[in-house]
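[AMINO ACID CHAIN]
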Amino acid sequence: MVYYDITQEQLIQMVTEAVLLEIKKAGSNVVPTGISVRHIHLTREHVDYFFGRNYQLTPRKQLSQPGQFACEETLDLIGRKGSIKKVRILGPERNKSQVEVSITDARMLGIEAVLRSSGDVEGTPGITLRGPEGLLVLNEGVIVADRHIHMTSADARRFGVKDGQRVRVQVEGQKPGIMDGVVIRVSDRYRLDFHVDTDDGNAFMLSQGQLVTILK
């Protein structure tokens, strides 16, 4: 018997690739689900501020999208009404620092919930971040991420959709239903994945990796 020394992340990656291959073979409109918890994206400048000049974020585990990873490092979020401790940073660095929360989180912090696509932070609420080197006030950058589906251009052709299009998604299971207004995001850097936050995940009793159907 041959034993292979692989990490849990590598095993998850292998299973994910196998599932996506079977989906493509079947030619169906199903997509795996990724439920995103609250997290922080930082610029190079802000990484330096909290952890020291030229500090390299420490990968904790790989995420569903290629090159994206959760870090060992965390920061606290401080709003007008409350705070949330040890919110995980995601890498790599971004052009703009951004904090993604659920509506439930926003209410806890006392921050207006603004629905945006990731990266679209102009005119959004700010927040205070607390880390090893003290406090940093972001004047903008807090968003509730829009529901969206990552896919490659080949996936888009197969599904008959285009970048920026909004579709409906059918959820099966104990609390079945339809999510509307789901944004299609197309790039050959992406891997097929339906992204929702914890509020949507809980409302439909979704689980990580659960298959949902894009409705034409």
Notes: The chain has five helices and 15 strands. The mean pLDDT is 91. The radius of gyration is 18 Å. Residues 37-145 form one domain.
